[in-house]
User: What shape does this take?
Amino acid sequence: MIPFHRPSITEDEVAAVADVLRSGWLTTGAKCLEFERLFAERLGAEHAISLNSATAGLHLALAAFGIGPDDEVVVPTYTFAACGEVVLYLGAKVVLADVGEDYLLGPTELAEAVTERTKAVMPVHFAGQGTSIAALRSVGEFRIIEDTAHAFPASVDGKPCGTLGDAGAFSFYATKTMTTGEGGMLVTNDGDLAEQIRRLRLHGIDSNAWARYGPGNRWAYSITEAGFKDNLTDIAAAMGIVQLGRLDEMAHKRAGIAAHYDAALRGLVGLPPRRESHSWHLYIIRVDPEQRDRIIEDLAAKGIGASVHVIPLHLHPLYKAMGYAPGQFPVAEKLYRSSISLPIWPDMTDGEVNRVIEAVLEAL
Ligand SMILES: *Cc1c(COP(=O)(O)O)cnc(C)c1O
Assistant: This one.
């Protein structure tokens, strides 16, 4: 069996988690603070706020932007469920937009979606390639929350994805380029935004549990607004610190696998347009839409887990109920119907990569 994904976990992650379990402090504490400091440092960002998911990061960023019932948020239809639902949490309107052949929301698609009610835009650095935030900014005045769940590490014009907009949300879900099982990070250079998000992630309270019970014994707290429960555990953070230290090694292995696939498959399958920087969270090939499902079944019959990323939002019942309809975003639909994601994970052996390639060639 070659699974679609297998996280890369060493004895270092195991030991780091075991240390926390033995330490007497399991929830948000010193490990989260250390993880945040290292993460901000890695990106050259002012603030990194650890959270229990990227979904929480997208939600809290929009909440901190002040998004509410009369506002519209533009979201590319070619994305995961999280992007749309967080807009709905706040009672705002999800305005879907098409994407380009590179799976990314660009200025042309954005311009078709903005209205005078557009308060925020949520570009998704899909598959691990960054879209130009500067180009999106040129379309109008709005806040930008980057969905960076796929794009760590990746950059646009030499600047890290997740630091280009007003804020960036990173995911440490089990299949992402680094993982804490579940977890996320919100990154921003805006001090006011950071302070607000720190409050919102833990019940709208003005200081976290560590500050209250840690050195100094500051027991007092005040609830300033209705917050949420989106903090990360020190168990997860300890794992995240080790994974962050291994990020470049893991990214290097992913890039090697992508190059191996490229060399064997170029000219035989469609390959998406490439930008200069790619995290290789996903390796996508494009095939004849009539053959797509059959190819995935052939791969499955050989024990190879291929997948499709993603079913565009406007094709789901939730969005159809809002008035969206098939045919509305032709590029996204074309990409969806012809895309297959092949296994790409750091510990794949050359033998395993070759088996995937052979199975794809046979299926073709
Ligand atoms: C995984 C993913 C998310 C959500 O990440 P969580 O950490 O699971 O909340 C958001 N957007 C995209 C594009 C994703 O792939």
